[in-house]
Specification:
Strand content of chain B: under 5%
CATH architecture of chain A: Orthogonal Bundle
Mean pLDDT of chain A: 90
Distance between the termini of chain B: 90 Å
Order of helices and strands of chain A: HEEHHHHHHHHHHHH
Shape of chain A: flat
Number of strands of chain B: 0
Mean pLDDT of chain B: 71
Largest sheet of chain B: none
Distance between the termini of chain A: 30 Å
Radius of gyration of chain B: 25 Å
Oligomer: heterodimer
Structural class of chain A: mainly alpha
Helix content of chain A: over 70%
Strand order of the largest sheet of chain A: 1-2
CATH superfamily of chain A: MetI-like
Number of strands of chain A: 2
Low-confidence stretches of chain A: none
Number of domains of chain A: 1
Shape of chain B: rod-shaped
């Protein structure tokens, strides 16, 4: 290897060093600490977890307990996992159904008002997530504006207790919280579609709807996948939305279960194992996404 | 001798000119403005921002 080759290699190592250091310090070390707590022991006197960093001394007691909670007889965590999947599936589908038309309009038809629409689409990012959820708490109270409007329009007869463990509220909260992320990703992807391809479809005699199905939708497959991933992954671990908008056991999700275990003396180890299991499950869509992106970039390259 | 095919004649509406295009009902115009999409986008934006505005104006005080 010549001098220039060695210099080039050193340059790339230097360039990657900050990222690798960041990952090592802020991801791998905390990840191993969680694993050490999950596979560690329990101090019976103080009911506190004892992290065991040597894998040779790891105990599988917490893993066995979590496994029993999930799949054993009389498991209480199984229904929570199913509920999480159902809520996240419904919320992400709603995000797509609401977000796609909005992103499509702004990217293709907004014209000179594109800047205005973009500012309005980005506006939720200027307001904290908690503030946005607190706004809904006020509106959804029994004597709140939502019930007042629905009652005055005779859509409902008596005020509904939206915040008392209502699945509709939780799914709505998830949609409201995460849809801006999906719309931005969709907008970025749809904006990159070459308009001449759509015009070619129209010129060749396709109707609006068929042009959309045959040209636009296939070309927006990758942005849809990216957007869904960006919304689904945090939704699965979300506990905050549920806690603020419901707080009831009948709507609790996996994030609430982990949070509850991490806050209960003696159950921190099980919480750590459960969070690692969620991480393992979430790896599957991540790997699919990476493979799909690689395949798409290979197909796009000449 | 090679034969050169003549281009097909323009279809009747195009040949009839802009007057015929003007007579065409708006919902048949393939380049019409997507009012439904625009309305949907505005509804989304209102749903996205109105709760915070209402909460700030009437509730957080």
């Amino acid at each position: 290897m010549g001098d220039s080759g060695r210099q080039s290699k050193a340059f790339w190592i230097l360039l990657a060093a900050p990222g690798i250091l960041w990952l090592a310090v802020l991801f791998i070390v905390p990840f191993y600490a969680v694993l050490a707590i999950g596979e560690g022991k329990l101090n019976r006197l103080f009911e506190s977890p004892v992290a065991v960093y040597n894998p040779l001394n790891w105990s599988s007691a917490n893993l066995a307990n979590v496994w029993h909670d999930l799949f054993g007889s009389g498991s209480f965590a199984g229904p929570i996992v199913v509920r999480t999947v159902v809520y996240v599936a419904a919320a992400s589908l709603l995000c797509l159904v609401i977000g796609y038309p909005a992103a499509y309009f702004v990217s293709r038809f907004a014209g000179h008002r594109k800047g205005l629409f973009l500012v309005l689409l980005i506006a939720p990012f200027w307001i904290s997530f908690m503030m946005r959820m607190l706004a809904w708490i006020d509106l959804l109270q029994v004597n709140g504006y939502v019930n007042k409007v629905l009652t005055s329009l005779h859509i409902i007869g008596t005020p509904v207790n939206w915040l008392g463990g209502n699945p509709v509220t939780v799914i709505g909260g998830l949609v409201y919280g995460y849809i801006p992320y999906l719309i931005l990703v969709l907008y970025a992807g749809l904006d990159r579609i070459d308009p001449s391809l759509i015009e070619a479809g129209r010129d060749l005699g396709l109707s609006r709807a068929r042009t959309f199905w045959r040209v636009t939708l296939p070309l927006s497959r990758q942005p849809i996948l990216t957007g869904m991933l960006i919304t689904v992954l945090p939704m699965i671990g979300d506990y905050f939305t549920n806690q603020l908008l419901s707080g009831a056991a009948n709507t609790s999700m996996i994030g609430n279960l982990i949070q509850g275990q991490l806050g209960t003396p003696g159950l921190e180890g099980q919480g750590a194992i459960l969070s690692l299991l969620v991480l393992l499950v979430l790896l599957a869509p991540m790997i699919y996404y990476v493979r799909s992106t690689n395949r798409a970039s290979r197909e796009a390259s000449p | 001798m090679t034969s050169v095919s003549t281009p097909p004649r323009a279809s009747a509406p195009d040949a009839a000119g802009p007057a015929a295009a003007r007579r065409r009902p708006p919902w048949r115009n393939p380049w019409r403005h997507p009012w439904f999409l625009e309305g949907f986008t505005w509804l989304y934006l209102i749903w996205s921002l109105a709760p915070i505005v209402i909460a700030v104006l009437f509730s957080f005080n």
